[in-house]
Design brief:
Blueprint (H helix, E strand, L loop, with lengths): L2 H14 L8 H8 L4 H17 L8 E2 L6 E5 L6 E7 L11 H14 L14 H14 L3 E5 L2 H12 L5 E5 L4 H10 L2 E5 L4 H10 L6 E6 L11 H10 L3 E5 L14 H4 L8 E5 L9 E5 L1 H10 L1 H4 L6 H16 L2 H19 L11 E5 L3 H13 L2 E6 L10 E5 L6 H17 L10
Parallel strand pairs: 3-12, 5-6, 5-7, 7-8, 8-9
Antiparallel strand pairs: 1-2, 2-3, 4-10, 9-10, 11-13, 12-13
Helix pairs in contact: 1-3, 2-3, 4-13, 5-13, 6-7, 8-9, 14-16, 15-16
Length: about 450
């Protein structure tokens, strides 16, 4: 089939499937089938225009206030602004707008400027950088830490520095894209084990004894399902096979364990994990990423992680803010406790209402709807009810597991959560998730 014919067919498919199971993965399939970039871009633009004309494209909403439990939101295709209950923010402890965190960033900007101006290995390191790395190492119970500009670049840089062409990276099936990309960039062989299936991991390691370095990489809390990796069991299997263990603590730092110290603290294996990778952009309330571990391992990564070496260092404003945020976590332990109070309440109420959700409470609660039309209708109705929630379609998740992805913070009030529950239940009935519409 010619490129022009493929484009026409795909556009007709998009227009015809407005109420059917369909996603923008059609564009990716066209690329795989030989459609060039310009044609695919035109196709994608048409799809976006079509979704916007139906009111279904709620991406790129603009926040006019800090990303907190509630915020003022402006969407470019609507007139006016909306004050919305935020169920779409990873600011788990509400630290992005904490006065101490903001003041630390302002003070650093006055002293050191807005940007780092250089890569970390050259002259991109400031006193705020050193302070943050020390605090991160102490917080994680490790010898040393190194910061990156983003959490994504941390995973990509660490995995590709640790492993090479004669090595093996073993990922959980649900691992974040940054871990997959790091494994691909490393040139190592990549294997996958079933999600949180320790026995399957054991089998994969047993069948791959010849690799020089074998790195198992899992997440503390998985970003789409909100469940935790069983680190104690995974560590036992990893040590049995003399492999290394990397834990991506993006969603577990500041959330799991005593004082929010992370998944290793939660499972009682502090000091035993080879490498902790994480982000500064979620519970810590800033932006950037980090790796923490033994001094020799971190030093090697500092010099050989290409995403760190060939990128401008994190801003001194950011590193100062993140260091202050860790201090707040340690000083105000009630924030972690309040976050989990909110998690348990919303989880139990959603379960009582009959929604298909995760088994255990978490700051990430997926509400599985299993249908693109239902997902779109619920998301749009919630938007109009001033509930800001993320929708996750295929191919980000498997067909049949399309979902609303709810994120909670310590700053949510019980009244806000009760209102959100009322709106979610009504949107589900109106979309036919429970087989009938809600009463007017």
């Amino acid at each position: 089939m010619s490129t022009a014919s493929q484009l026409v067919k795909a556009k007709k498919s998009i227009e015809a499937q407005d109420n059917e199971e369909m996603s923008l993965v059609e564009v990716l399939r066209a690329r795989e089938n030989g459609v060039d970039f310009r044609t695919a871009a035109s196709m994608f633009a048409g799809a976006v225009d079509h979704f916007e004309s139906k009111g279904h494209n709620l991406y790129r909403r603009m926040l006019l206030e800090p990303s907190d439990a509630e915020a003022l939101v402006d969407y470019p295709h609507e007139a006016g602004e909306r004050r919305m209950i935020m169920l779409a923010s990873n600011n788990y402890l509400g630290l992005a707008s904490h006065p101490k965190v903001i003041e630390a960033a302002c003070q650093a900007a006055r002293m050191y400027g807005a940007g780092a101006g250089s890569s970390p290995l050259l002259v991109g390191t400031f006193p705020t950088t050193r302070k943050l790395e020390t605090k991160l190492a102490n917080f994680k119970g490790t010898e040393e830490a190194c910061v990156f500009a983003t959490g994504y670049s941390a995973n990509v840089g660490v995995i590709s520095a640790v492993c090479g062409k004669n090595d093996l990276v073993i990922l959980d099936r649900y691992s974040h894209a940054s871990m997959v990309d790091g494994a691909k960039l490393s040139g190592a062989q990549l294997k996958v084990f079933r999600h949180n299936d320790v026995e399957h991991l054991d089998n994969v390691l047993r069948r791959n004894q010849d690799a020089r370095t074998r790195l198992v990489a899992v997440e503390g809390i998985y970003s789409m399902d909100g469940d935790a990796a069983p680190l104690d069991e995974i560590l036992r299997v990893v040590r049995k096979h003399d492999a290394m263990l990397l834990v991506d603590e993006a969603h577990s730092t500041g959330v799991l364990g005593e004082g929010g110290r992370g998944a290793a603290a939660h499972f009682g294996v502090e000091g035993q994990i080879d490498l902790h990778v994480g982000t500064l952009s979620k519970a810590i309330g800033a932006c950037g990423g980090f790796v923490a571990g033994k001094s020799d391992l971190v030093t090697y990564i500092r010099y050989f992680a290409r995403s760190g070496m060939f990128s401008t260092a994190p801003s001194p404003m950011v590193t100062a803010a993140a260091a202050a945020a860790i201090e707040v976590i340690e000083e105000e332990s009630w924030r972690v406790e309040r976050l989990w109070d909110n998690c348990r309440f919303l989880h139990s109420e959603l379960k009582r209402m009959g929604f298909k959700i995760s088994e255990q409470p978490s700051p990430i609660i997926p509400v599985i709807v299993g249908s693109m039309p239902i997902l779109r209708q619920m998301t749009l109705e919630l938007h109009r009810a001033n509930i800001c929630v993320n929708s996750v379609p295929f191919p980000a998740v498997a067909h049949g597991s399309e979902r609303l992805r709810i994120s909670l913070t310590a700053n949510h009030t019980r009244e806000q959560l009760v209102e959100a529950l009322r709106c979610i239940k009504r949107a589900a009935y109106n979309a036919g998730l429970f087989g009938e519409k809600a009463a007017a």
